[in-house]
Amino acid sequence: MLTLSLSTLRDRKQLFAGALVAIALGVALVQSSLHVLHSVSDPAIPARLSRAERDDMRENYVGAAVTMGLQAPLVVFLAILVVGSTCSFAVAQRRRDLALLRVLGAGRGQTKRLLATESLLLGVAGALLGAPLGVAMTWVQTRLLEHVGFVPAGFEPVYWHWGSVLAASAAGAGIALLGSWSAARRAARIRPLESLRETGAAARVMTRGRWCVGVVCLALSVVLVVGAQSADPIGAITIAMTLSIVGAVALSALSPLVVPLAARLFGMVFRRSPLGALAEANIRDGARRTASVAAPLITLVSLVLGLSGALGVLARSIGVEQERLTRGDIVVASANGEQAARLAGVPGVADVSSQLTVPVPVTAEVRKDGTRAARPHTFEDRVVAVDAAAYARARTLAPKSGSLADLHGDTVAVGPALPAEGFSAPKVGDTVTVAVAGTERKLRVVAVLPETLDIGDRFLLPREILPAGVLAAAASESIVTVAPGVPVAEVEERIRAAGIGGTATVAEWADRRAEAQQDGNDKIFAVLLGLAGVYALVGVVNALVIATAERRAEFAVARLSGLERPQVVRMAVVEACAVAAIGLGLGSVVAAAGMAGMAKSTAAVTGTAIVVVPWGTLAATVLGAFAVTVTAAVVTARAATRERPAALAAART
């Protein structure tokens, strides 16, 4: 069996080359994700840095770890899709070979063992190629993280960790086996004569497994869309991200039905030319082939638009929320508290609420998500010093328990950041410990603020418990209310002229908060889907290579019927472009369903339906997909039509 498998791989190397590339790239991407995740999970932070710099670096490392932790399962999902569909398609393209083996006496068990051996050999070869490629991918991933600012310049990851290498290799080989196993079982069940004649079960593309996966995921997608209508914004965004995966799986599984139906729409344009009409007929007749090309594109666009759109809605919602929660006219950013203290004396200023950012560590009894018991945790971060009465006047966010009126003396209020970061907030009446000017003080919790879209602050302290020198040196952000009848622009000019700080209207300030959030989202998106998007396009190329390699006889018959070689190539390009457009359109439908849920959810909470379409990302994805598809179609079609048609017209290879 091993000898026969090796012989088959050697003789059909063009057919299996795409599967080998898909496995190797999948192993490399999984391995690099695990390597980088291992490197940023427990990094060494230089002691020479200031506390603020160490906190910023630690926060960036956490962001890198979270991003890579999300990327690893995403890459595994794409590997299952790309490798599984490629191996399954390769098996389906060999059904005549397998039928001949059955006619010559091979049993069903022998056929399945042959295919399993071939898949195992491909998986092992892909793992051996992917392991060293993973080292290069680790370097690329690290430089990408460095470029977006998640890791410091010159950061060196772990390039070889046996646990990561073995896990990635096992995943690649396992996915290859799983991808071909269902196709192998089906090939073994089909009668040999049906496979040779392409009738009966051999001609049936929608198998019971496809129906089951497609219908279940489609039903789950409908449930998610309905659920998003009544969810809060965070829930709707989470649902939209989940829907981008579940919906892509549903349409990919049902693509042998959906793609030929969508081709009828393109037929209205195609039928104007003989080549177009022939391309439409090929799309509708080659359902298995067109579905294999469209599936990676459906997934790619669904993920790109779904994730990017959801992150964009989150950023825009933060700006809308902050504007709604703020009472005032101007936001002033001052270098220190001494400058902020001068705001009250500026002509035209009716009220000022300043919050001073102070580096004070806080130790509190909290419970992290997933743990049962609360334990002391020290937040090596910055707290916000406020005047409780002024803070309450400038903000509409009311505590969910306790009262800010009690925030004076040895007290503290819990900000919205703790629940947003997965910590259980201390209750009113609990105590926390702070280190103020080298002295530890016990503070009683008097208020707990609710979670907001913008994570915000962890702890609010009354200004009177902090030394005057610390407050004078602390960076400040102040909300200024202008006296009635005084132009806001005039007061802004006076504040700037006095050298108190930079100014912005509340609307401008909220927009900047949204832009800052979007910048962070763009970094996450670039790392999360940068290489993964390229991998999805590799799946498209693989499907085209495998499909076109098996169409040499078909192209030869077309040429003997009167078409010239350039016409056959153009027909293949038109066909590939149509399938690409269908795949991109179906992926957009999935993303649009998620956006509809986010629009209704944000409208219920903020009063404004927020939908963000990442036009730039969409344009880049569409152009990249068409460029890759057209290039692959031209190259493969020219290669398939290189030989004389008379020699290939009766070929079955």
From TrEMBL:
Keywords from the UniProt entry: Cell membrane, Membrane, Transmembrane, Transmembrane helix
InterPro entries (alphabetical): ABC3_permease_C, Lipoprotein-release_system
Segments forming domain ABC3 transporter permease C-terminal: 74-191, 527-643
Membrane topology reported for the UniProt record: Multi-pass membrane protein
TM spans (from-to): 70-92, 120-139, 159-181, 211-228, 234-263, 293-315, 524-547, 568-592, 612-635
Major location (coarse): membrane
Family classification: Belongs to the ABC-4 integral membrane protein family. LolC/E subfamily.
Name of the featured protein: ABC3 transporter permease C-terminal domain-containing protein
Organism: Yinghuangia aomiensis
